[in-house]
Specification:
Serine Threonine Protein Phosphatase 5, Tetratricopeptide repeat; 12 helices; 75% helix
Length: 224
């Protein structure tokens, strides 16, 4: 009896010890809790990052509505990444009612702060005349701003605008140069576009385009 009682007491002690160990901490959940605390204090960067946790479902259940709410708080404080992402939410209808005009509003705010993705998106709206009046010259300007930040898609679209003369800016040398940069950034169609363009260019123009591409690449590198 004594032996059985001892074993029972030992088991009880082991179980008590195990119960006291607790579960390992969840790093994702801890990160979420820490970010939420900072976000609730009004920190814009934390609000933006918290929104991405809701979008990705890291440390919390995926919730696009909550994400949009936190993005709005950060965007209202001038956070460019939040403004761009909120614009994307309105464009797609994720977490908010789809509203292209509201999307353009937030893309413009982010673009004016230098967000390259927003600048590229804004260029598309102006080029296509969606929501905003069609403005090819404005599209070229926004594509150029993003392209100068080494945005591959903007570089390719800017080259397309120059190649086709949209907005009154037909310039095969510029088109060749920007497609050259886009090709260097992985655009698979850019080389084909260059080959087609070269059929209407003379050797002097091609050399100018190659030289311009080198200059642009150096300027982009210097900005980093």
């Amino acid at each position: 009896m004594n032996w059985s009682l001892a074993k029972l007491l030992l088991c009880a002690g082991l179980l008590a010890g195990l119960a006291g160990c607790g579960r390992p901490a969840d790093p994702a959940r801890e990160k979420f809790s820490a970010l939420k605390a900072r976000a609730e204090q009004g920190e814009a960067a934390a609000q933006c990052e918290l929104a991405f946790l809701y979008i990705d479902g890291q440390g919390v259940g995926r919730d696009h509505v909550a994400a949009a709410q936190w993005l709005r708080k950060a965007a209202d404080q001038g956070n460019a990444l939040a403004q761009f992402t909120l614009g994307g939410a309105y464009a797609s209808g994720n977490g908010v009612a789809k509203d292209e005009a509201e999307a353009v509003k937030w893309f413009r705010k982010a673009a004016e702060q230098g967000n390259a993705d927003a600048q590229q998106n804004l260029g598309v709206y102006f080029a296509q005349g969606q929501v905003v009046p069609k403005d090819e010259a404005g599209a070229v300007q926004w594509f150029r701003k993003a392209a100068e930040q080494n945005h591959p898609l903007a570089q390719s679209r800017l080259a397309f605008m120059y190649a086709n003369g949209f907005g009154g800016f037909r310039d095969p040398v510029q088109a060749h140069a920007w497609w050259n940069l886009a090709a260097g950034n992985g655009d698979r169609d850019a080389l084909q576009n260059i080959n087609a363009l070269e059929k209407e260019m003379n050797r002097q123009q091609i050399n100018q385009a190659i030289s311009l591409a080198q200059q642009l690449a150096a300027q982009i590198k210097a900005r980093k």
